[in-house]
Amino acid sequence: MGMKLGLHYWTYSTPGDVRSIAPTLERSAWLADQAGFASFTVMDHYFQMEQQGEATEPMLEGYTALGYVAGHTSRATLGLMVTGVMYRYPGLLAKIVTTLDVLSEGRARLGIGASWYEREQRALGVPVVPVAERFERLEETIQICQQMWSDNDGPYQGKHYQLAETICSPAPITRPHPPILIGGGGEQKTLRLVAKYGDACNLFATTPDDIAHKLDVLRTHCTNEGTDYDRITKTALATVDPLDDPDGFAAAAEQYAKLGITELGVMPNPGQNPVEFTEKVAQQVLPRLSAIG
Fold first, then answer.
1. Are 208 and 190 a contacting pair, CB within 8 Å?
2. Is residue 1's pLDDT more than 90?
3. pTM of the full predicted structure?
4. CATH homologous superfamily for 4-290?
């Protein structure tokens, strides 16, 4: 079966000219798609994350970028890692993801989380609400997307959102609906939501021990929710550059695979050209991962 690889495209700063952003994005996505990367993700940010660079570095709106990528790829699953719950009204978010799914011919995934980057929210006028409320809104948003993607066109009445009708035409091509990936490793709230609603989770691949612990927590939540733990796709985002030590990366991937992780996301380092990164990972890392299992 092998370990699947996802390309996480998080920076638009290299190469430096704004006119190179589109061709670099297109070429990286096309190469990843051709080489057999299982997924292609971008961030749902409007400013670059301050722990990775300057807020003023180039950043594109995620779903528009994925719409562009959809036209240049044919196989990879496309999604945000992860949609910030406060950035779009839930009914509209369901339509946005449906649009991506229809235009990519059934390759969309809804990655979603509670959103955390308050600087960009305050800067651009996005409501900043307490964390507890963000998680309430996250749960309602998932419920709304599930209803929009069902045969139920009726109203939705929540604490934070009220929809008079949940018509979604066309329906997504992906049946029964685009997979809902809930991102984050929060043990009290996030992993409970994964157990209750998620088709997939996404964790940080810090160490195998850490991942094993998070998956144990998820398994407990699944037992409490009456959910089949094995039904949930487990994905993780690598925190190391796979090109530094491809053999070591493959060895770690094998350990993650034994724990049940089926897809690892990789991302270029700051300043690394994404096209070169994608080419080298395809040559040096993908073949080693296909041998796993």
1. no
2. no
3. 0.97
4. Luciferase-like domain (3.20.20.30)
